[in-house]
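User: Can you predict the 3D structure for this chain?
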Amino acid sequence: MKTRDHSLPLFDYADEIVCGVDEAGRGPLAGPVFAAAVILDPNRPIDGLRDSKKLSEARRDALAIEIKSHALAWAVAQCSEAEIDTINILQASMLAMRRAVEALTVQPTLALIDGNRCPVMTVRSEAIVKGDDKVTAISAASILAKTARDAALLVLHQHYPHYAFDQHKGYPTVLHLERLSLHGVSPVHRKSYAPVKALLEGAA
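Assistant: Here is the predicted structure, written as structure tokens:
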């Protein structure tokens, strides 16, 4: 596994089938962590790809549709709250990324991973620091992972409306912490995370 911190033009991947890989949802107190893998089609470029956190929700949603229709292959995967609590969020993120790569309908020869480490998998991989704003395939994966997770949290909101998941998407905002304190821990909260764990220990 290699780690690079350069811009993509410095690389030469002409003979590779490259997939970009990124995750979304390490920080939230509730819901799964998501990951996506994308193999872009060089003959169908997509304008405006960048780190999903730097895009508006409307722009992310529009780009997600374009990515799914233009890419050679894409896949989204996740790790559940129970898996996060069992193996920790770092390992769960790595597992979700591996699942996304393995779910691709086109076999990549190289996976470019956002960040400074790679999941253990059969496909050769390189970690690229801040890759979601440097490598278009990783940007695309960032967008798919983020939009998939946001959609999942809207579904959770329907099941647990009193937590306001539609507003904070599970992140530890003041609103979320207030609702968590008021209503207690739900089945979709990550019990290993400090604010949730503290509530459980206080109720024991």
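The first helix runs from residue 57 to 70. The first strand starts at residue 2 and ends at 4.
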